[in-house]
Amino acid sequence: MRLGLALGYWGRGPNPEHVPLAQEAERLGYDSVWTAESWGSDVFTPLTWIAAHTTTIKLGTAVAQMAARSPTTTAMHALTLDHLSGGRMMLGLGLSGPQVVEGWYGRPFPKSPLTATREYVDVVRQVLRREGPVEVDGRFHSHPYTGPDATGLGKPLKPITHPLRPGLPVLLGAEGPKNIAQTTRIADGWLPLYWSPTRPEVYEASLADAPDGFLVAPMAQVRVCDDIAEGLLPVKTMLGFYIGGMGHARRNFHADLMARMGYEEEARRIQRLFLEGRREEAVLAVPDAFADEISLVGPRERIAERLELWRKGPVTDLLALAPDRATLRVLAELNPT
């Protein structure tokens, strides 16, 4: 199991520790570093900055939101950074949800998310392979565009720039069972938002047809500390926000995932409290047991013991949301390459 460093997205402003953390991860032998985006900082600019300050560590997006860019634009970002970094780019994509797609990006959320995802990946693959002009007769991503307001002058094009790697890895941040199953067919890997090594049955059917070499790269908060309850608080804060605030009461993929993992009643309570404006109560309502099973928190000996569970399953890459260099070092020592 390889190690990656997940830096997430910016809050109020850039985090001055992100580059030093990425450099330390590279020095410790971490395989990859990943950035994210929500409705603030974008995913590619910080990753490019990190690329300029590192030399060997792989560079991933976890995730680039599909609604933020046309698929050809995303492919251009990926092939450009792959060239500039010497072939270190890994493209992680995610559809997000209706609240963000329609509220922030001002676009309709696709009525058929699986079809929209499949077409998007198809376009990206065509750009990266550069075998001919990009042509997709799609429901959501037609190339050339042939909608009712089209001029009819669109011409199929292929990229001027020759991609460095036609097989640049594409991963998907899928959550629903059908979406995960499709991911095993159209992508090189999967970026789970929550992963519990004690509940392999949650994803077993969806991953049944995953090919050899398929990447499973979940994110997990990692914190070396003596007080487990205190160490779990940032995990619970994240869960409270995602389950309560990252989606509508009628459609929240994160809450649905928590429910599938055995915490349906708790997920709906967190949603209700958050939407009522009782955010602190929503965070406290996150069960310690759930926060604990999807993270690695506690003294070094406890993390070492729990890390064995992660290594026994299908996880190929553990993407650590680690807050400090000491934690990065401990994790590297416990999981030598």
TrEMBL record:
Domain of life, source organism: Bacteria
Q: Name one Pfam family in it.
A: Bac_luciferase
Locate the Luciferase-like domain: which residues?
A: 17-315
As one GO molecular function, the record gives: oxidoreductase activity, acting on paired donors, with incorporation or reduction of molecular oxygen
Entries under CDD domains matching the protein: Tetrahydromethanopterin_reductase
Which keywords are on file for this protein? Oxidoreductase
Identification of the protein by name: LLM class F420-dependent oxidoreductase
| Native organism | Streptomyces aquilus
